[in-house]
Amino acid sequence: MSRRLPIDWALMFEQAQETGWDVSDLALHLDVDLRTVLYYADRLGIAWRRKPHASPRGIDRPAVLEAARHENLTAIALAGRLGVARQTVYSALRRHGLYLSERRDWTSEFARAAATGETQSQLARRLRVSRQAVTKAKKRLLKTTGRGPSNATPT
């Protein structure tokens, strides 16, 4: 079992900052856990953290997300186009408060469907959404309006 020599943490932080290392580089160089480096940085009063996380392939630019919304892309299609995971697209959208589709006025959509005798499946095809999206919207609408199943519109 080898014995570690004491580390002069103040000197290590100073040299690491001069060479442009971040916290994880220093931890790797010293062969210690990242939490250990962060502990000593905090103990010495050094406000030194990791490098900021970069957004993958520029997806965080609102212009990219806004363009995808105007092209009527789904999150899955946008993820495929950008070469990132679907969840990455959803996270970026949520971060910017954007939606790929416009918020629908489901009340008028259900009223129109009831007037024309359209089923939920037909409504979903017309609106280019999944049938599950229509079912969820219907449940949400019934919950907020307090209308029971007897007054429900399309089936």
Q: How would you portray this structure in words?
A:
With 155 residues, this protein is mostly helical. The chain has three domains: 9-43; 56-96; 106-146, no CATH class. It has nine helices and no strands. Helix 2 (23-30) crosses helix 3, helix 5 (75-82) crosses helix 6 (86-96) and helix 8 crosses helix 9 (131-145). It is elongated, with a radius of gyration of 27 Å. The termini are far apart. The model has no long low-confidence stretch (mean pLDDT 77).
Secondary structure: elements and pairs:
Blueprint: H1 9-19, H2 23-30, H3 34-43, H4 62-70, H5 75-82, H6 86-96, H7 106-116, H8 120-127, H9 131-145
Number of helical regions:
9
H/E element sequence = HHHHHHHHH
For the terminal residues, how far apart are their CA atoms? 72 Å
Specify Rg, calculated over alpha carbons. Answer: 27 Å
**Into which percentage range does the β-strand content fall?**
under 5%
